[in-house]
Design a protein that fits this description.
2 domains, 314 residues, mainly alpha, Alpha-lytic protease prodomain-like, Alpha-Beta Plaits, elongated
């Protein structure tokens, strides 16, 4: 895809996020143990979930680098999408559901109190600083991949790098969640009513569940198989625009992984060049690979005679 480069695989933000979340999770659990804060409990769950997220993404990245085999002739690059889907549904949604359950229990528990409020606030601010740093790393990774300088959300929707989307969503949720927890803690302290702490915990849980649903929708499309982007399709088609090719009869592309593309084409070669078909196909393949530098590209081109009634088989 044209928005991604060979030198950046999107995993730098995963490693940065893992380091940040381990540090923040420890501080949050200490804060929860001392204060009994519902929002802090939800934030602790959030950080543990995030750590599990990054470990799964790193494992998925390792599987995606597996060599081709008889069982997997195109390799296992799409493993990243599988593990990203697990992260989105089992961990994001599961973590959010646990947070909602905990918050509802606190909302209905008359004895719910918060102690050591200032310590909780200090830990939340510390977490906010660390998570903001991790989010900046994610933004830097996106800037390296987004070579066409697309608007942020357009890039995220079109990118085939699932780990970039999930880390950006995760870090964004972490920052928003910490702000919600901070607001709930401060309001509870000022008003003397622990309702605000529990309510902010409920919002954090719902935020995680909403993020899971959004990510699952995106990863479903990637797992099923998305074509190359419009920009990359234009580059591929331009390789067939030459006098030797009378007609590009059919062209299909699919991402086998973030940087793995399958290209299948059927062309009608001009009569004068029938004897040079072998060299022509090799030259087209070479041009496609040059224009899609940074990808592992599988290309299959066959020749045929164009028929106006031709319909590509589904």
């Amino acid at each position: 895809m044209s928005t991604e480069t060979e030198n950046s695989s999107g995993m730098g933000s995963v490693i940065a996020a893992l380091g940040a979340n381990v540090l923040v999770a420890i501080s949050k659990f200490i804060g929860f143990a001392i204060s009994g804060s519902s929002a802090m409990m939800n934030e602790s769950i959030h950080s543990v979930v995030d750590c599990g997220n990054q470990i799964l993404l790193l494992f998925g990245d390792k599987r995606a680098k597996a060599e081709t085999s008889e069982l997997h002739p195109f390799g296992e690059a799409r493993a990243k999408y599988f593990f990203s889907t697990i992260v989105a549904m089992m961990l994001f949604f599961g973590g959010g559901a646990l947070g909602v359950i905990e918050a509802v229990e606190k909302l209905t528990h008359p004895a719910h109190e918060i102690s050591n409020t200032w310590l909780v606030i200090a830990i939340l601010i510390f977490g906010l600083v660390v998570e903001s740093t991790s989010l900046r790393v994610a933004f830097k990774e996106i800037a390296e991949l987004n070579v066409e300088q697309q608007p942020l959300f357009k890039f995220l929707r079109e990118s085939r790098h699932s780990e970039v989307l999930i880390i950006f969503t995760e870090d964004s949720c972490a920052v928003v969640g910490l702000l919600l927890a901070l607001a709930g803690t401060v309001l509870s302290h000022v008003t003397g009513n622990a309702f605000w702490d529990a309510f902010s915990g409920l919002l954090i849980g719902l935020l995680l569940m909403a993020a899971a649903i959004f990510l699952a929708k995106e990863f479903y499309s990637l797992l099923v198989g998305e074509s190359a982007t419009k920009a990359d399709l234009a580059k591929i088609k331009s390789s067939f625009s030459r006098p030797e090719v009378d007609k590009l009869i059919d062209l299909k592309t699919v991402h086998l992984g973030p940087t793995d593309i399958l290209v299948a084409a059927k062309i009608d070669v001009a009569d004068d060049f029938d004897a040079k078909t072998f060299d022509l196909i090799n030259d087209i393949e070479s041009q496609i690979r040059t224009k899609l530098a940074g990808y592992k590209t599988y290309i299959y081109i066959e020749t045929d005679t164009f028929d106006e009634n031709y319909q590509a088989k589904s």
